[in-house]
Amino acid sequence: MIRSPYLLYLGHSNDEVGIKTSRGLAVFRPDDCVGEFRHDDCALTLGLSRMTLEQAVAAGAKTLVLGIANAGGKLGDDLVADAIAAIAAGLDVASGLHNRLRDDPALVAVAEEHGRALHDVRDPRPDIPIGNGKRRAGRRLLTVGTDCSVGKMYASLCLERGMRARGLTADFRATGQTGILIAGSGVPLDAVIADFISGAIEQISPAREDDGWDLIEGQGSLFHPSFAGVSTGLLHGAQPDALVLCHDPVRDHMRGLPHYPLPGLKETLEANLAVARLTNPDVRAVGVALNTSKLAPEAAKRLCAETEDALGLPCTDPYAMGVDSIIDRITACFAPSPRVATLSR
Predict the structure, then answer these.
(1) 18-73 tens-digit pLDDT
(2) Cα Rg for the chain, rounded, in angstroms?
(3) For residues 279 and 118, is the Cβ–Cβ distance under 8 A?
Protein backbone atom coordinates (compact mmCIF):
# COMPACT_ATOMS: atom_id res chain seq x y z
CA MET A 1 0.00 0.00 0.00
CA ILE A 2 1.39 3.38 -1.05
CA ARG A 3 0.81 5.80 1.78
CA SER A 4 -0.79 9.17 1.10
CA PRO A 5 -0.72 12.16 1.11
CA TYR A 6 1.76 12.54 -1.75
CA LEU A 7 4.46 15.01 -2.66
CA LEU A 8 4.55 15.11 -6.46
CA TYR A 9 7.92 15.19 -8.15
CA LEU A 10 8.71 17.43 -11.10
CA GLY A 11 12.47 17.64 -10.53
CA HIS A 12 14.31 19.24 -13.44
CA SER A 13 11.56 18.48 -16.00
CA ASN A 14 10.66 20.91 -18.74
CA ASP A 15 8.56 18.53 -20.88
CA GLU A 16 4.86 18.97 -20.14
CA VAL A 17 4.02 15.52 -21.46
CA GLY A 18 6.80 14.03 -19.36
CA ILE A 19 5.16 15.04 -16.06
CA LYS A 20 1.87 13.35 -16.92
CA THR A 21 1.94 11.05 -13.89
CA SER A 22 2.29 13.89 -11.41
CA ARG A 23 -0.29 15.91 -13.33
CA GLY A 24 -2.73 13.01 -13.42
CA LEU A 25 -2.57 12.59 -9.66
CA ALA A 26 -3.01 16.33 -9.13
CA VAL A 27 -6.11 16.32 -11.35
CA PHE A 28 -7.84 13.11 -10.30
CA ARG A 29 -6.66 12.71 -6.69
CA PRO A 30 -6.18 16.30 -5.54
CA ASP A 31 -7.11 15.59 -1.93
CA ASP A 32 -4.16 13.19 -1.66
CA CYS A 33 -1.55 15.68 -2.94
CA VAL A 34 0.02 18.19 -0.54
CA GLY A 35 2.41 19.87 -2.92
CA GLU A 36 5.02 19.63 -5.66
CA PHE A 37 8.79 19.31 -5.53
CA ARG A 38 10.78 20.97 -8.31
CA HIS A 39 14.22 22.44 -8.81
CA ASP A 40 14.85 26.03 -9.84
CA ASP A 41 15.46 25.08 -13.48
CA CYS A 42 11.99 23.51 -13.77
CA ALA A 43 9.57 25.98 -15.34
CA LEU A 44 6.56 23.66 -15.01
CA THR A 45 4.01 23.61 -12.23
CA LEU A 46 0.90 21.67 -11.29
CA GLY A 47 -0.56 24.66 -9.50
CA LEU A 48 0.24 23.10 -6.13
CA SER A 49 2.35 24.60 -3.38
CA ARG A 50 6.04 24.29 -4.12
CA MET A 51 7.64 22.58 -1.13
CA THR A 52 11.00 21.41 0.05
CA LEU A 53 11.16 17.82 1.25
CA GLU A 54 11.18 18.98 4.85
CA GLN A 55 8.19 21.27 4.33
CA ALA A 56 6.25 18.43 2.73
CA VAL A 57 6.92 16.12 5.68
CA ALA A 58 5.79 18.87 8.06
CA ALA A 59 2.60 19.24 5.99
CA GLY A 60 1.86 15.54 6.38
CA ALA A 61 3.25 14.03 3.17
CA LYS A 62 4.08 10.33 3.40
CA THR A 63 5.33 9.46 -0.09
CA LEU A 64 7.33 11.20 -2.79
CA VAL A 65 5.88 10.10 -6.12
CA LEU A 66 8.44 10.25 -8.93
CA GLY A 67 5.66 11.21 -11.32
CA ILE A 68 7.64 11.71 -14.49
CA ALA A 69 7.84 9.62 -17.66
CA ASN A 70 11.10 9.96 -19.55
CA ALA A 71 12.16 8.04 -22.65
CA GLY A 72 12.72 4.43 -21.66
CA GLY A 73 11.59 5.04 -18.07
CA LYS A 74 15.13 5.53 -16.78
CA LEU A 75 16.08 6.23 -13.18
CA GLY A 76 18.83 8.81 -13.68
CA ASP A 77 21.40 10.10 -11.21
CA ASP A 78 19.34 13.20 -10.43
CA LEU A 79 16.28 11.12 -9.57
CA VAL A 80 18.31 8.80 -7.37
CA ALA A 81 19.86 11.75 -5.51
CA ASP A 82 16.46 13.36 -4.91
CA ALA A 83 14.93 10.05 -3.83
CA ILE A 84 17.74 9.49 -1.32
CA ALA A 85 17.19 12.99 0.08
CA ALA A 86 13.46 12.32 0.34
CA ILE A 87 14.02 9.09 2.25
CA ALA A 88 16.40 10.84 4.63
CA ALA A 89 13.77 13.54 5.18
CA GLY A 90 11.19 10.93 6.18
CA LEU A 91 9.32 9.99 3.00
CA ASP A 92 8.62 6.71 1.25
CA VAL A 93 9.27 6.78 -2.51
CA ALA A 94 7.03 5.49 -5.31
CA SER A 95 8.01 5.23 -8.96
CA GLY A 96 6.44 4.00 -12.17
CA LEU A 97 9.67 4.08 -14.18
CA HIS A 98 10.97 0.98 -15.94
CA ASN A 99 14.19 1.10 -13.89
CA ARG A 100 13.22 -0.28 -10.50
CA LEU A 101 13.94 1.52 -7.25
CA ARG A 102 14.75 -1.81 -5.62
CA ASP A 103 17.54 -2.42 -8.15
CA ASP A 104 19.54 0.61 -7.04
CA PRO A 105 21.81 -0.42 -4.13
CA ALA A 106 22.15 3.11 -2.76
CA LEU A 107 18.38 3.58 -2.58
CA VAL A 108 17.86 0.20 -0.95
CA ALA A 109 20.54 0.89 1.66
CA VAL A 110 19.16 4.31 2.59
CA ALA A 111 15.59 2.99 2.72
CA GLU A 112 16.64 0.18 5.08
CA GLU A 113 18.62 2.60 7.23
CA HIS A 114 15.66 4.95 7.67
CA GLY A 115 12.90 2.34 7.68
CA ARG A 116 11.21 3.69 4.54
CA ALA A 117 9.40 1.85 1.77
CA LEU A 118 10.22 1.74 -1.94
CA HIS A 119 7.26 1.16 -4.28
CA ASP A 120 7.80 0.06 -7.89
CA VAL A 121 4.43 0.57 -9.60
CA ARG A 122 5.55 -1.06 -12.86
CA ASP A 123 5.65 -4.54 -11.36
CA PRO A 124 3.11 -6.83 -13.06
CA ARG A 125 1.49 -9.66 -11.18
CA PRO A 126 3.34 -13.01 -11.37
CA ASP A 127 0.21 -15.02 -12.26
CA ILE A 128 -0.77 -13.46 -15.60
CA PRO A 129 -2.27 -16.06 -17.96
CA ILE A 130 -1.92 -16.28 -21.73
CA GLY A 131 -4.93 -14.71 -23.44
CA ASN A 132 -7.54 -17.08 -24.85
CA GLY A 133 -9.85 -14.74 -26.78
CA LYS A 134 -13.01 -16.44 -25.49
CA ARG A 135 -16.13 -14.31 -25.52
CA ARG A 136 -16.97 -13.07 -22.02
CA ALA A 137 -20.00 -11.36 -20.58
CA GLY A 138 -20.19 -7.67 -19.89
CA ARG A 139 -19.40 -4.52 -21.83
CA ARG A 140 -15.97 -3.04 -22.39
CA LEU A 141 -14.85 0.28 -23.83
CA LEU A 142 -11.23 0.87 -24.84
CA THR A 143 -9.61 4.22 -25.54
CA VAL A 144 -7.19 4.16 -28.49
CA GLY A 145 -5.00 6.88 -29.93
CA THR A 146 -3.15 8.36 -32.84
CA ASP A 147 -0.06 8.51 -30.62
CA CYS A 148 1.21 7.99 -27.08
CA SER A 149 0.20 10.47 -24.36
CA VAL A 150 -2.78 12.00 -26.19
CA GLY A 151 -5.38 11.68 -23.40
CA LYS A 152 -6.47 8.04 -23.31
CA MET A 153 -6.35 7.88 -19.51
CA TYR A 154 -8.11 11.24 -19.11
CA ALA A 155 -10.87 10.15 -21.50
CA SER A 156 -11.35 6.86 -19.66
CA LEU A 157 -11.51 8.49 -16.23
CA CYS A 158 -13.85 11.23 -17.44
CA LEU A 159 -16.14 8.62 -18.96
CA GLU A 160 -16.17 6.74 -15.66
CA ARG A 161 -17.22 9.89 -13.80
CA GLY A 162 -19.80 10.82 -16.41
CA MET A 163 -21.39 7.38 -16.60
CA ARG A 164 -21.57 7.03 -12.82
CA ALA A 165 -23.18 10.47 -12.60
CA ARG A 166 -25.97 9.08 -14.80
CA GLY A 167 -26.44 6.08 -12.56
CA LEU A 168 -24.62 3.68 -14.88
CA THR A 169 -22.22 1.08 -13.54
CA ALA A 170 -18.74 1.82 -14.86
CA ASP A 171 -15.23 0.98 -13.67
CA PHE A 172 -11.90 2.37 -14.83
CA ARG A 173 -9.30 -0.31 -15.57
CA ALA A 174 -5.76 1.07 -15.39
CA THR A 175 -3.00 -0.15 -17.70
CA GLY A 176 -0.24 2.40 -17.00
CA GLN A 177 1.70 3.79 -14.07
CA THR A 178 -0.39 6.94 -13.68
CA GLY A 179 -3.70 5.14 -13.91
CA ILE A 180 -2.57 2.55 -11.37
CA LEU A 181 -1.56 5.27 -8.90
CA ILE A 182 -4.92 6.97 -9.37
CA ALA A 183 -7.07 3.84 -9.22
CA GLY A 184 -4.99 1.89 -6.73
CA SER A 185 -4.91 -1.20 -8.97
CA GLY A 186 -4.35 -2.28 -12.57
CA VAL A 187 -1.61 -3.74 -14.73
CA PRO A 188 1.53 -1.93 -15.98
CA LEU A 189 1.03 -3.25 -19.48
CA ASP A 190 4.30 -2.08 -21.00
CA ALA A 191 6.16 -4.13 -18.39
CA VAL A 192 4.33 -7.36 -19.25
CA ILE A 193 6.09 -9.98 -21.39
CA ALA A 194 4.67 -9.78 -24.90
CA ASP A 195 3.07 -13.23 -24.90
CA PHE A 196 0.99 -12.30 -21.85
CA ILE A 197 -0.30 -8.84 -22.83
CA SER A 198 -3.75 -9.96 -23.96
CA GLY A 199 -4.05 -12.28 -20.97
CA ALA A 200 -3.22 -9.43 -18.59
CA ILE A 201 -6.15 -7.43 -19.94
CA GLU A 202 -8.48 -10.40 -19.75
CA GLN A 203 -7.38 -10.75 -16.13
CA ILE A 204 -8.13 -7.17 -15.05
CA SER A 205 -11.35 -7.03 -17.07
CA PRO A 206 -13.06 -10.39 -16.51
CA ALA A 207 -16.65 -11.32 -17.35
CA ARG A 208 -19.27 -9.30 -15.51
CA GLU A 209 -22.99 -9.96 -15.20
CA ASP A 210 -24.18 -6.61 -13.80
CA ASP A 211 -24.72 -4.77 -17.11
CA GLY A 212 -21.79 -2.57 -16.17
CA TRP A 213 -18.94 -1.25 -18.30
CA ASP A 214 -15.22 -1.71 -17.92
CA LEU A 215 -13.51 1.43 -19.22
CA ILE A 216 -10.05 0.22 -20.19
CA GLU A 217 -7.20 2.71 -20.43
CA GLY A 218 -5.45 2.51 -23.80
CA GLN A 219 -1.70 2.47 -24.33
CA GLY A 220 0.50 3.58 -27.21
CA SER A 221 -0.73 3.59 -30.79
CA LEU A 222 -0.95 1.09 -33.62
CA PHE A 223 0.97 3.68 -35.67
CA HIS A 224 3.86 4.20 -33.25
CA PRO A 225 6.79 1.99 -34.33
CA SER A 226 8.05 1.71 -30.76
CA PHE A 227 4.83 0.73 -29.00
CA ALA A 228 2.41 -0.73 -31.54
CA GLY A 229 2.94 -4.21 -30.10
CA VAL A 230 1.50 -3.22 -26.74
CA SER A 231 -1.47 -1.54 -28.45
CA THR A 232 -2.19 -4.67 -30.48
CA GLY A 233 -2.21 -7.01 -27.50
CA LEU A 234 -4.39 -4.58 -25.59
CA LEU A 235 -6.97 -4.48 -28.38
CA HIS A 236 -7.13 -8.27 -28.46
CA GLY A 237 -7.32 -8.76 -24.70
CA ALA A 238 -9.86 -5.98 -24.14
CA GLN A 239 -12.33 -7.60 -26.54
CA PRO A 240 -13.92 -4.12 -26.72
CA ASP A 241 -17.51 -3.47 -27.63
CA ALA A 242 -16.73 0.23 -28.07
CA LEU A 243 -13.73 2.34 -29.02
CA VAL A 244 -13.08 6.01 -28.30
CA LEU A 245 -10.36 7.56 -30.45
CA CYS A 246 -8.04 10.02 -28.68
CA HIS A 247 -5.92 12.65 -30.41
CA ASP A 248 -3.78 15.71 -29.76
CA PRO A 249 -4.59 18.10 -32.65
CA VAL A 250 -1.52 20.32 -32.19
CA ARG A 251 1.03 17.53 -32.38
CA ASP A 252 2.73 17.14 -35.75
CA HIS A 253 4.73 13.93 -35.26
CA MET A 254 4.78 10.79 -33.15
CA ARG A 255 6.11 11.39 -29.66
CA GLY A 256 9.88 10.89 -29.65
CA LEU A 257 9.98 10.21 -33.41
CA PRO A 258 10.11 13.47 -35.37
CA HIS A 259 10.63 11.48 -38.58
CA TYR A 260 7.16 9.86 -38.21
CA PRO A 261 4.13 12.08 -38.88
CA LEU A 262 0.86 11.45 -37.08
CA PRO A 263 -1.71 9.31 -38.90
CA GLY A 264 -5.12 10.66 -39.85
CA LEU A 265 -8.11 10.14 -37.58
CA LYS A 266 -10.08 8.05 -40.05
CA GLU A 267 -7.03 5.93 -40.83
CA THR A 268 -6.37 5.34 -37.14
CA LEU A 269 -9.97 4.46 -36.40
CA GLU A 270 -10.21 1.97 -39.24
CA ALA A 271 -6.97 0.25 -38.23
CA ASN A 272 -8.04 -0.11 -34.60
CA LEU A 273 -11.46 -1.47 -35.55
CA ALA A 274 -9.82 -4.00 -37.85
CA VAL A 275 -7.47 -5.27 -35.13
CA ALA A 276 -10.21 -5.32 -32.48
CA ARG A 277 -12.47 -7.49 -34.65
CA LEU A 278 -10.24 -10.50 -34.03
CA THR A 279 -11.80 -10.97 -30.58
CA ASN A 280 -15.02 -8.98 -31.02
CA PRO A 281 -16.39 -8.80 -34.59
CA ASP A 282 -19.16 -6.46 -33.38
CA VAL A 283 -16.88 -3.69 -32.06
CA ARG A 284 -17.88 -0.16 -33.01
CA ALA A 285 -16.57 3.36 -32.58
CA VAL A 286 -18.60 5.60 -30.27
CA GLY A 287 -16.67 8.86 -30.14
CA VAL A 288 -13.57 10.99 -30.53
CA ALA A 289 -11.71 12.66 -27.65
CA LEU A 290 -9.48 15.63 -28.45
CA ASN A 291 -6.94 17.18 -26.12
CA THR A 292 -7.67 20.87 -26.82
CA SER A 293 -5.70 22.29 -23.90
CA LYS A 294 -3.43 24.23 -26.29
CA LEU A 295 -6.33 25.74 -28.27
CA ALA A 296 -8.51 28.77 -27.58
CA PRO A 297 -12.04 27.77 -26.48
CA GLU A 298 -13.75 28.82 -29.71
CA ALA A 299 -11.13 27.10 -31.85
CA ALA A 300 -11.54 23.95 -29.76
CA LYS A 301 -15.32 23.93 -30.20
CA ARG A 302 -14.98 24.53 -33.91
CA LEU A 303 -12.49 21.68 -34.31
CA CYS A 304 -14.75 19.30 -32.40
CA ALA A 305 -17.67 20.21 -34.65
CA GLU A 306 -15.57 19.74 -37.79
CA THR A 307 -14.36 16.36 -36.52
CA GLU A 308 -17.92 15.26 -35.81
CA ASP A 309 -18.94 16.14 -39.35
CA ALA A 310 -15.93 14.38 -40.87
CA LEU A 311 -16.24 11.11 -38.93
CA GLY A 312 -19.92 10.97 -38.06
CA LEU A 313 -19.09 10.48 -34.38
CA PRO A 314 -19.54 12.67 -31.30
CA CYS A 315 -16.35 14.61 -30.60
CA THR A 316 -15.41 16.44 -27.42
CA ASP A 317 -12.57 17.32 -25.10
CA PRO A 318 -13.54 15.03 -22.19
CA TYR A 319 -11.84 17.11 -19.51
CA ALA A 320 -12.74 20.60 -20.75
CA MET A 321 -16.14 19.97 -22.36
CA GLY A 322 -17.49 16.83 -20.72
CA VAL A 323 -18.44 13.45 -22.13
CA ASP A 324 -22.24 13.65 -22.41
CA SER A 325 -22.27 13.31 -26.19
CA ILE A 326 -20.19 10.13 -26.11
CA ILE A 327 -22.28 8.63 -23.31
CA ASP A 328 -25.41 9.43 -25.33
CA ARG A 329 -23.96 7.43 -28.21
CA ILE A 330 -23.03 4.54 -25.92
CA THR A 331 -26.50 4.27 -24.39
CA ALA A 332 -28.12 4.54 -27.82
CA CYS A 333 -25.93 1.82 -29.34
CA PHE A 334 -25.87 -0.74 -26.56
CA ALA A 335 -28.71 -2.44 -24.75
CA PRO A 336 -27.94 -4.17 -21.42
CA SER A 337 -25.19 -6.71 -22.09
CA PRO A 338 -26.22 -10.25 -22.91
CA ARG A 339 -24.93 -13.17 -20.92
CA VAL A 340 -22.45 -15.27 -22.81
CA ALA A 341 -23.09 -18.98 -22.48
CA THR A 342 -20.18 -21.37 -22.19
CA LEU A 343 -19.97 -23.47 -25.35
CA SER A 344 -19.31 -27.18 -24.99
CA ARG A 345 -18.42 -27.81 -28.59
Answers:
(1) 898 999 999 999 999 999 999 999 999 999 999 999 999 999 999 999 998 776 66
(2) 20
(3) no
> What would the pLDDT profile of 217-232 be if each residue is shown by its tens digit?
999 999 999 999 999 9
Instruction: Check whether residue 93 and residue 143 sit in a common domain.
Output: no
Amino acid (one-letter) located at 305: A
147 and 114, same domain (yes or no): no
CB contact at 8 A, 252 and 149 = no
The answer to whether position 324 is within a domain reads yes
Quick check: is 53 in a domain? yes
Cβ neighbours, 10 Å, residue 20: 21
The C-alpha angle with vertex 282 and arms to 277 and 284, in degrees rounded to 5, equals: 90
Residues 322, 186 share a domain = yes
CB-hemisphere CA count at 13 Å for 37?
A: 25
As a whole number, mean pLDDT of residues 135-147 equals 97
Domain that residue 243 falls in: 139-333
Residue 98: how many CA atoms within 13 Å on its side-chain side? 10
Name residue 287's beta-bridge partners: 244
- pLDDT per residue as tens digits for the range 246-296: 999 999 999 999 999 999 999 999 999 999 999 999 999 999 999 999 999
- Cβ-based neighbours of 328, under 8 Å, separated by 6 or more: 314
Q: Are residues 145 and 78 in the same domain?
A: no
Secondary structure in 3-state letters for 247-265 = ECCCCCCECCECCCCCCCH
